[in-house]
Amino acid sequence: KETGGALAKGGAYLDLNAFSSPEELASLGLDRLKSALLALGMKCGGTLEERAKRLFAAKGKSFEDIDQSLFMKETTKGKRGTKESERNKEIAGLESQIYRLVELLSEQRASTIENIRRKQARAGEENEDDDDATAAISDDESDTEEDGLVYNPKNLPLGWDGKPIPYWLYKLHGLNMYYNCEICGNHKYRGPKAFQRHFAEWRHAHGMRCLGIPNTAHFANIVLIEDAIALWNKLKHNKDDERWKPDMEVGLFE
């Protein structure tokens, strides 16, 4: 099967001195034989064997000695030449436009290339600085690990592996916030989860017991002693008002 490549359409000269028989020429394939025949102005149709024989017939001969029946007709050559010349003109026009655009944009191209090179140089320096910083940190970590200490400059909580947890996890759980509880002896709790959990733990229950106040759900989220005592007095007053008083009931019925 033939392909419509530029080589087959335009024609390319082939040195026939390297071939001793049409069979050797046939090994080049249909496209290459067609290209060589077009370069000589000879007919390029037919089977592989016909093309090889036609091309081999021109070996060592001048154009006058070659059988004229092997050449293409003048009308065909003229049409082909006209089409090729028109196509070459179009290509030449496009090339001239491209060269003109290159000339007009030469300053912008030079500035762009210089800017890119400057950015690449700056990026290379930054990467080297990052590599140096990373190497320094790794050296510090290795030194601290050798000394039995964990590198933890931000004082992050330790995970299950004995190493500091990631900083994003530290922020996610709100471990950067501390909550103070006066009832627990001004003990500080790290993060909202630990703060909410401590109301049911022994430390808070012991503080409430020392104040003489039961550690019930009414006192959830109360951390000041003054607030706890005020709420306890209010609850006791409400209970006294709700309590059944037989003397008052008797007075009403009389």
| Major sheet | 2 strands, antiparallel
Q: What structural class do helix, strand and pairing data support?
A: mainly alpha
State the end-to-end distance: 125 Å
* Share of helix, binned: 55-70%
Low-confidence stretches: 1-10
Strand element count: 2
N-to-C order of helices and strands: HHHHHHHEEHHHH
On the 0 to 100 scale, the average pLDDT is 78
Looking at the structure, what is the overall shape? rod-shaped
GO molecular function: RNA binding; zinc ion binding
Subcellular location: Nucleus
Keywords: Metal-binding, mRNA processing, mRNA splicing, Nucleus, Zinc, Zinc-finger
Protein name: Matrin-type domain-containing protein
Question: Which helices and strands occur, and which strands form pairs?
Answer:
Layout (H helix, E strand, L loop, with lengths): L5 H5 L11 H5 L3 H11 L7 H9 L17 H31 L1 H41 L20 H6 L5 E4 L5 E4 L1 H6 L4 H9 L14 H18 L3 H8 L1
GO molecular function: RNA binding; zinc ion binding
Subcellular location: Nucleus
GO biological process, one term: mRNA splicing, via spliceosome
Question: Quick gist of this model?
Answer:
GO terms for molecular function: RNA binding; zinc ion binding. Its main location: nucleus. Helix content is 59%, strand content 3%.
